[in-house]
Amino acid sequence: MTSYLRFFAGHVGRVVLALVFALPLVFMLVSSFKPDDQIFGDLGSLRAFLPVGALSLDNYTGVFERVPAARFLLNSVLISSITVVLGVIVNSLAAFALSRMRWPGRKLVLTAVIATLIVPFETFALPLVWWINQLPLLRVNGFHLEWTTGWMDTYQVQILPLVANAFSIFFFHQYFQSIPKEIDEAAIVDGAGWFTIYRRIVMPLSGPAVATVAILTFLPAWNSYLWPLMVVQSEELRPVMVGLSYFFQLNVSWGQIMAYSSMITVPILALFVAFQRSFVNSIASTGVKG
Amino acid sequence: MVFRTRRLAVASVAALAATALVAGCATGSGGSSTSGAKGDTLTLWTHNAGNSAELDVVKKIIKDFNGSQSTYKVELQAFPQSDYNNSVVAAASARKLPCLLDVDGPNVPNWAWGGYLAPIDVSGSEVPLSAQLPSTVGRYQGKVYAFGFYDVSLAFFARKSVLKEYGIRIPTLDKPWTKAEFDSALAKLKKSGKFPYPLEMGTGSLGEWYPYAYSPQLQSFGGDLIDRDGYQTASGTLDGKDAVEWATWFRSLVAKGYLSKKSGADPNKDFLAGKSALQWDGSWNAAKNAAKLGDDLAIIPPVDFGHGPKIGGASWQWAMSSTCSNKAGAQAWLKFARQTKYFVDYAEATGTIPATDAAAQQVDGYQPGGKFSVFTRFAREYAVVRPVTPAYPYISTEFQKAVQDILAGADPEKALGQATKDIDTNLKTNRY
């Protein structure tokens, strides 16, 4: 009986905890179908979380009338996806060199990489703007290519600065450490080079770490706001988070904000659900908590 | 092994070549000192992305300008207002400013001092600068850098029926509330038990709202954000006796339960829903309030706390960047835009105060005797522009922090003292 009660109490506790985390999302989704007056009217009761009243798709229609939401979504998917792919490749390669290969100074380099974690992005955002404005750029101009200078107002300026990531390198490093080094030695005896070991042995064994880094790279890329705001001027290149600030003007429409927020939250939730198992496994096995 | 060494050598050469390419090009056109135009095609930035009412007016002026002549073409890029300033600062650091841009009035001195803006010459345009409300012209060190099509005004909004019910006098322009009257009105409204917080002043809104909304009250007490005689110190004005008196009174509004420490997400909605009795708000909500409350709406002048009623002046204005590679084209657009019909369009679209009397004659409610014409008088008679110094953005931030602390319960004298100290240090460091 006691164990049954404990089991029941544990379940109740988990359900309550799940509700605490789920209710804001439910509120957002439900409110996205309600007119503004009703959103405020329902705030004092449980109706705020229920799909009741004058429900419609008006807020979603309003979103598409107010901002080029489809374009922003497409841009964010493109930017985040490429950042994730490049991030996994670049950071795992760096971590592989730091973790598996023996060369003088690697501990110092790892320490330096980890040390950069304490520097907030905002402190070097402006110098970075200056720097990216000095970089060469190959552009398509009509039917020919031309060299210009400066990456402002491009897709790549929203991708490349986010690729190399100290936390991802550290995370991969920790995970690679858990893979026995004897495997490398056996592979070398069989004639494999370092890149073959990386590609054929270490990476196939690091699925959970890849999934975790993918999620941890995707999130900041998707949520990126200050950086694109500083370096992108053309509306057609802007990501979703910059689009969100379009709604905070005079006469704020909270229904539209909820609708837009729902639209940009769904991809994140889908990604997390897809990689949830690997994410949890990987965090547990590396002992790294984000 | 030989193969690996060769691969390493090739990779090293490639890396060196890439580095050299980057370094070589870094001294190229990236260092160009002009921007904002490709030949006669000029770029224009505005803070109105997502705000279709005002954005449509900008688009209309651009379309009319592009159609009116064949030399220049202006192209629009709209940014969301919340971080528009960051975009401009970043572009300025990369020397990528557009030729034409809008700027919030209080920032004009800072952007002019920082070299972002160039002085403009709009003589010969349809509307002379002298016809505008003074607060709608952005000047710095005797030169004109910007002009606006409209201004906004602060006022108290209330329901006449509510004031009457509790025996509260409805103030007029000639006889605004005194501090004693205002305090008494708040006490009566609080005592009624009908309003959790009878006064709504948007304490939940951050950013420029704090200095815009609250520094006029500080000024009416006799204090100020900075000593305007030379703009070299805040000492004695921001931390003087009058300023501390204001801050103590401001804190007491929260302590007595008259004012929420942090207002809701939409204070105007709360006022219209009857949650608060008095709202200190901008003229931009007047039309909405009038539509909802009709003749019951009272537009009340600011309180005279001892040194006359005060409101903030200056709203968004148009300027030309100093790096503009086609200044003639930019000036042409600015001059073209200065037509009364556009002053009218702006005011109608945004519900703001037309910057000229000629435009006011054509805007519903703003004609002499119109229901919103009091705002024009507020702007003309009570407006105090925020300090005309490059230090203003810093002063604004420090004031925001101090007010937040005071609302949260900090000692008013200490909070203002700290802000004053920080502002003075900033002034000395930058030698403005």
TrEMBL record, chain A:
Keyword terms of this UniProt record: Cell membrane, Membrane, Transmembrane, Transmembrane helix, Transport
Domain of life: Bacteria
Cellular localisation: Cell membrane
Listed InterPro entries: MetI-like, MetI-like_sf
Membrane topology: Multi-pass membrane protein
Domain ABC transmembrane type-1: 73-275
Designated name of the protein: Sn-glycerol-3-phosphate transport system permease protein UgpE
Organism field: Streptomyces lomondensis
From TrEMBL, chain B:
A Pfam cross-reference name: SBP_bac_8
Chain segments annotated as coiled-coil in the UniProt record: none
Record field: transmembrane: none
Gene3D superfamilies linked to this entry: Periplasmic binding protein-like II
Annotated InterPro entries: SBP
Domain of life: Bacteria
Keyword Disulfide bond tagged: no
SUPFAM superfamilies: Periplasmic binding protein-like II
Keywords: Signal, Transport
Signal peptide: 1-23
Listed PANTHER family: MALTOSE-BINDING PERIPLASMIC PROTEIN, MALTOSE_MALTODEXTRIN-BINDING PERIPLASMIC PROTEIN
Family designation: Belongs to the bacterial solute-binding protein 1 family.
Protein name, as recorded: Sugar-binding protein
